[in-house]
């Protein structure tokens, strides 16, 4: 990608109303743009990152048997009456009427729809276990939509739902999801921890949140050296660790995932039953498991940045793997140094390396400042000073080195070399 063609340009100043680091940097670097309170456009750079996170999630959920589907955002009132959440879910639903005066909601979650599908198609214990997921837009009628992508009114979420013929089956799959989530967050460059949590208006007998420690986080948790953790919402009275008796320390954190053992909460209310081995009707045992993709994206930046901008932790989530920068004093169209940079750009593309090529006729200072702000993991500089070499520098390091193109390729493809 030529940076001269990238939409839009970076901004000189961060938005004045930004309160979180990710909000400031994502807007200033040209990843996202605000349309209204809690409503965001993902610009080309931001959407590339979003798609990479989607791919990571799909890969891990597919490994544990998830089948991807896509459910409607518009949902009929009747299903929410059945579940008992039409007037009780918090935040309250976005409710609309069509031209026939029929009431619909913009789905903030999809337990009702997925339970309807299970009721229709799952008839026997032989149809279980079943795991269905989607990556789809949700609408939350938040009272306070702040901090950029960390709290929004419209967002894209991965929601996975599992169906079982017993609590034992749910328990086993719940553990599989826990491992998948750990793999997802690790691939995104995050150190996550699982803590006990409140099930809120989603319901169910048990739930856990995946947290990332951050001073800017709105969630408060208590953690122990033994690995136990609990959200203050449910563990405020805990003075010592219930697992080992050790000291609990309070920390600020950001929630990046939430999983629930729903049990028969929805299946009983909505008559989603199956025939067991004895031919008896029983309610399906359910679990649900969510990850907000925009929030996950923002959290990566909350914990991976410096005073100059974003630092994407790895190529799994970075919009590009390498940032090639041309420094040409004369800025001539057919200069030798530009020909060299063009050749390197073509060769990187041939090697299937995602590269952003700064071919703009701007000063080195502006180019370097933009490179740090955008945060691509590897910076490659071509100038008269580099001669027949390329200046290679990692975004999270101060030192650079001069390498030939083959060494550059090796270091990009094998970061630990």
Search tags:
29% helix; alpha+beta; nine-stranded mixed beta sheet; 2 domains; Rossmann fold; BirA Bifunctional Protein, domain 2; five-stranded mixed beta sheet; 417 residues; single chain
Structure overview:
The protein is built from 11 helices and 23 strands. It is an alpha+beta fold. The chain has 2 domains: 3-306, 2-Layer Sandwich (BirA Bifunctional Protein, domain 2); 320-413, Anticodon-binding domain (Rossmann fold, 3-Layer(aba) Sandwich), CATH 3.40.50. A hairpin with a 2-residue loop joins strand 17 (305-306) and strand 18 (309-310). The protein is elongated. The two termini are 26 Å apart.
How would you summarize this macromolecular structure in one to three sentences?
This protein has 417 residues and is α+β, with helices and mostly antiparallel strands. Helix content is 29%, strand content 29%.
